[in-house]
Amino acid sequence: MRAPGLGFYLLNASLELCIHLAYDNSRENIVYSPFSIGTTLSMVLAGARGNTALELSNLLHVDAGYMNTRYFSEAINNSLSSRDVICHTANRLYSDRTFPVRSEYARLLYDKYKARILSVDFQSNSEAVRHEANEWVSRKTQNKIRNLLGPDSVSSETLFILLSAIYFEASWQSSFSPEQTNTGIFYMDSYNIVYVDMMNQESDFMIGHSDELNCRALEMPYRGGEYSMVILLPDSVDGLSSLEERLTEYSLANAFIGLKMRRVRLSLPKFKVEQKLTLKDTLRAIGVNDLFDDEKVDLSRMFENRGPAVTAVYHHALVEVNENGTKAAAATTALGSNSFYVPGEATSFIVDHPFMFFIKRNEYDLILFMGSVRRPV
């Protein structure tokens, strides 16, 4: 039996984030990258001590030392890209020149996270630093994520910025024909509809139903089979909020395990979801408090003293799905189941009301992106 890896340890934190983000955005689309957020928090954890480290390690379900850096470095250093998939990650730290980073922490970031550290002058050039950081994120995400740091996010009082970015682009293993795309109805709830571009195809997909979550599930592999998108479609039009609240690592794993290969007539709307999040309050709600407290923060593995409190955590994610495949990007800053084919008639899987999606690396069970679509257009 394979030992649990990074995907396992990130899943619980991902679902905790999901519950709170869904509560705060109950009428909006939600999209975020558990991997990008996790990488940023992991870099902070590597520089933390005491209760600051304990709170972060409890969220990430790893200890504050070797296991934390091991899991993330394995994912970062073992290329996530392949012949068929583009998946790039990048990490960077900006440190004020009056607040030097410990040399051992700098070496750890370089060795484990491939992260560069730039010494800058926030007091005199905060706007120039903000502009340069935004340009870096834009380049690393193929211009998908722009202006991660807003006009008021960096000031002369800023001491450090940790950045993590990820870009993903892949084609479907079984692509949709544009000629088969037509206008369809999408029920946003029991009373409101919107017209969407509905993609259609008939092919073999892994499909199943979760009685535990009251939803159907379908897995769509990307070319090469290393990555896939899983759709969770609630049984009822108004069932998405209940699905988000009931998700656990066990119920989600059971839903994945229960999938079987079937012939499927699939209808899926083209969609593009994008979201900018400020995660400080969300992280505090799930147990990360000392990191944001001037009196309690302990980042003494990172800086020569206990370090400054983090003032904000920004996250910007985008996922775009069309006939050819998926383009997705995200950036964060901190201021094996058995399957078999079931013969028979094709079954219909019509995604015509709010749903959840997950983009995952199958080998590591690693969720790169996840979200909820309440309005595809």
Automatic annotation (TrEMBL):
Its main location: secreted. It is found in: Secreted. PROSITE patterns: SERPIN (PS00284). Signal peptide: none annotated. Residues 15-376 form the Serpin domain. One of its GO terms (molecular function) is serine-type endopeptidase inhibitor activity. It comes from the Eukaryota. The keyword Secreted applies. One of its GO terms (cellular component) is extracellular space. It holds the Pfam family Serpin. Keywords: Glycoprotein, Protease inhibitor, Secreted, Serine protease inhibitor. The keyword Secreted applies. Belongs to the serpin family. PANTHER family: GH10112P-RELATED (PTHR11461:SF211), SERINE PROTEASE INHIBITOR, SERPIN (PTHR11461). This is Serpin domain-containing protein. The lineage of its organism: Eukaryota, Metazoa, Ecdysozoa, Arthropoda, Chelicerata.
